[in-house]
Amino acid sequence: MFDEPHRQCQKNCWFRGALHCPAIEAIGECLGEKRREIDIGDFAETYAVRMDCDNEMNPFWAENWSVIDTN
What's 30's DSSP letter? Predict the structure, then answer.
């Protein structure tokens, strides 16, 4: 069962676009693993899983990240 912050995150995804939830999830994963640092790989992996995309369509890895539609 999802807790309230996770439900709120899901609701916000509809309003803020596809990047919002993966970013929150990446931070949550890092905190859940008791790590003190988060890096771009955490965000990239969470986004790739959520959006089912390869590195070329992942704004955290792609060279032309600014042209990727994340909505």
Answer: H
Question: Is the entire prediction scored with pTM above 0.70?
Answer: no
The Cα–Cα gap between 36 and 48 comes to: 22
Q: How many helices, marked H, and strands, marked E, lie in the chain?
A: 3, 0
Query: Within 13 Å of residue 23, how many CA atoms lie on the same side as its CB?
Result: 10
**Backbone phi, then psi, for 68, in 5-degree steps?**
-80, 130
Tokens of 29: 């994963």
DSSP state of 67: G
pLDDT tens for each residue of 1-48: 445 554 555 555 544 555 567 778 888 888 889 988 988 889 888 888
